Every structure is written in structure tokens, then in C-alpha cells.
Amino acid sequence: MKNAGKVFDALASDIRRKILAYLSATDMTAGEIAEYFHISKPSLSKHLSILQNAGLVESEKKGQYVHYSLVQDNLLNTLNNYVQEICPVAHPIRNDSKKAAADKANKKK
User: Fold this and answer.
1) What is the pTM of this model?
2) What are 61-77's pLDDT values in tens digits?
3) Could you say which of 23, 47, 102, 108 is the most buried, measured as most Cβ atoms within 10 Å of its Cβ?
């Protein structure tokens, strides 16, 4: 696995692990992700770039916004999702992600 170093570097950051948890149930723009953190936009952009370079997150331009989502078929994301299910810190974040997904679905109606 040639990207293992990039993946472990990406997962070494608490903020990046939390970003992955927020993206677990829905895609989000950088602005939506930023609402959950007290960091600068350039710092958030750097974290997202590291996650993308590790192959854990992908981005798609939709209109004027870039939406970020998990790379679902990445084995490491599958393992990370499993760990989040049993991790007491990640569980409330996953609930926030599910709520954000439900809010988005309601807005589209």
C-alpha cells in the first residue's frame, strides 16, 4: 500500500479525524464543515487537502460550491467508520453529521 504513509499522516490529526466523522453521513461544503471548528479557513483548506491527497476525501464542484465527501470504497474509511461507531468522542459527531444530512434533505423538499 503505497499511500499508507499519507493515510497515517492524515489520520494523525484530531481535526482531520473529526472532519471524516462529519462527512460520514453526508457531503458538505468547506463552509458547512467550518461551522464545527474554530480554525481559519486556510487551515481548514489545508486539512481538506491532506485528506484528499491521502485518498480519504474527494471533492466535486456543484455550482459555486465545492462539496467534500468520503471516498466510500476506500478500505481505510471503512475501518475508520467502524472505529467511530465504538469511539465515545466520534459518536456525537456522527450524530451531528446525520442531523446535517436530514436538514439538507428537508431543505430540498
Assistant:
1) 0.72
2) 999 999 999 987 775 66
3) 23
- Structural domain including 13 reads 4-98
Domain annotation covers residue 25 = yes
Query: Beta partners for 33?
Result: none
Q: Which residue has the cell 493515510?
A: 7
Distance between CA 20 and CA 77 in Å, rounded? 8
**CATH number assigned to the domain comprising residue 74:** 1.10.10.10
Cα–Cα dist 90/42, whole Å: 24
Specify the pairing of strand 65-70 against strand 57-62. Answer: antiparallel
Coarse DSSP helix, strand, coil percentages of the chain, rounded to the nearest 5 percent: 60, 15, 25
